[in-house]
Amino acid sequence: MSNQYNNSVRRIQTISTHLSHQNSSDSKVLKSNDHTLYDICVIGGGITGTSTAYQLSKEGYKVLLLEQYKIGHDNGSSHGDGRIIRFSYPEDIYLELAKLAYPLWNDIENESGSKLIQITGGIDFGSHKSQALIDLINAYKKHNIKYQVMEYQEANERFPQFNFQKENLIVYQQDAGVVYATKAVQTIWELAKRFGAVALDDKKVDQIKVESPELVTIQTVDQCIYKSKKVVLSCGGWINEILLRSQLNLQIPVEASQEKVFYWSPKPETKNIDYSQYSNPVSIYYGEVDAFYSLPQIEIPGVKIGYHHSGNALSSMKENKTKVYPPEFVEKIKKFVEKYNPGLDHSKESHSLTCVYTNTSDYHFIIDKHPRHQNVIIASPCSGHGFKFGPAIGKVITQLIKHNKTSLSTFHEFSLSRFNKSTNKRISA
């Protein structure tokens, strides 16, 4: 990984030199309509960026938040009617984050007066030999998380939305639920502004320039310039593009993928079964190699069911929404729905949506400082499982900026340096 990483940096240097000459010949007079020196500029207004701006502004920092699209857009990873929130992780780092995230979500609801979370309970199930489930139960025990292992007859009686099998290990956890994704991002954006952040959408950053350890210049495509002491890059799938344009001699080892989620309507004969968020728990199924997840009906008609990490790799974010989701994977989802959710019409989805995962090679997050520029922070390419942790990630980044350390005992697991050696891909969703 080290040689690959260095080769990537050299390629970026070569391309960046070309871009620099090209930009200099096409240069325009820049508009500088903001003479404020900000403490931190956060680039990217998804769940990570808005949460970071919100937490920093609460701490009294002078914050600028820039989003390239309209706030709440559907071009990235932070939109939709619902995302799962849960404790169901086998790794210490994510249980630490979950314990931090739940009360922070409660704070956001109280401060905004908006309901953003519905607790549904959550079910993780699969084979009795599933290592992911075995590790999950051990983690629950270690961290004193309440859980219940259910017999399949009991689970089917309690949750008629499902058809669990005799061979299933079924683990129920009462605190899981859904977060209203688009509403949450918009709400936290407004809270950040209430606490003093300057939040601007339709402001695409062209490049950033590190002038010194205490000064960064940010240039947008509409020819505006902003100044800040530090920058947080929470750009998701666009992270390497902005690093390249900014000639920062760094390429993050991530790959964006275009994922698709499907909504399945109840059959007419099962109209007596409640598939709503007030009765239907979220679920994650672990097969031998595949993982599927489900959310109850929230706003969009139908139960949301997706095939985790099954989407097309994107060579750039411009390809998002243009590729065709593999038909054989649609068939896999249909068979899964037919077997485990027989009350739903598996013959044809009622609706579908695309979103983007920004995946690291080991499916863990990245939260770290640039190896050469300590006033540039790389914030959380989340590999398709980060939304629930948004406020906690914002808090951790705030701690990192304020104290140069965080409260997470295993924070080093999110470092960039881990890619200089062999890493193991996580097996849990």
TrEMBL record:
* KW Metal-binding (keyword) present: no
Cofactor(s) named in the record = FAD
Tell me which stretches of the chain form a coiled coil.
none
GO MF, one example: flavin adenine dinucleotide binding
Domain FAD dependent oxidoreductase as annotated: residue spans? 39-400
- Give a yes or no for keyword Kinase in this entry: no
Note the InterPro entries from the entry. Answer: FAD-dep_OxRdtase (IPR006076), FAD/NAD-bd_sf (IPR036188), MTOX (IPR045170)
Which keywords does UniProt give here? FAD, Flavoprotein, Oxidoreductase
Q: Which Pfam family is an annotated match for this chain, by its short name?
A: DAO
Report the domain of life of the source organism.
Eukaryota
Transmembrane parts of this sequence: none
Q: Which Gene3D superfamilies match?
A: D-Amino Acid Oxidase, subunit A, domain 2, FAD/NAD(P)-binding domain
Q: Identify the NCBIfam families for this entry.
A: PRK11259.1
Q: What is this protein called?
A: FAD dependent oxidoreductase domain-containing protein
